[in-house]
Specification:
It is built from 4 helices and 5 strands. The chain is of the alpha/beta class and 111 residues long. The protein has a domain of 62 residues: Trna Endonuclease, Chain: A, domain 1, CATH 3.40.1350. The radius of gyration is 14 Å and the shape is globular.
Length: 111
């Protein structure tokens, strides 16, 4: 787990699914005024296989079912246009990180 995540969260739970190249974990953090519970799903896709709207909708359902504050979908690929539209529609409960954003974030951490 990257150090930056460990410093900001108080608890992590991992669930790893090799068949689908997906990893799910959540982070909990107690803040002064409220607690944060973030469900994170990581998709290791080839760049030509984009994350679709149904995948994003499933994460939103998982966030609701588990009572999470928000969901974060991270991919080594990109999102389809319908998936991006859905992320925009649910911007207060869902966020998406594609390959470019992920690479930029990792570069900032490393440099």
């Amino acid at each position: 787990m990257p150090l930056c995540w460990r410093k900001k969260a108080t608890a992590f739970v991992w669930a790893h699914r090799v068949q689908t190249m997906a990893w799910t974990f959540y982070a909990e953090k107690d803040l002064d005024l409220f607690a944060e519970f973030i469900l994170v799903q990581c998709k290791k896709y080839h760049r030509d296989r984009k994350v679709s709207r149904p995948v994003v909708k499933q994460l939103r359902a998982d966030v609701a079912d588990r009572g999470a504050s928000r969901g974060l979908l991270v991919t080594t690929s990109y999102f389809t246009k319908p998936a991006l539209d859905y992320l925009d529609h649910a911007k207060y409960t869902l966020s998406g990180i594609d390959f470019e954003k992920l690479r930029s974030w990792l570069n900032r951490l490393g440099g």
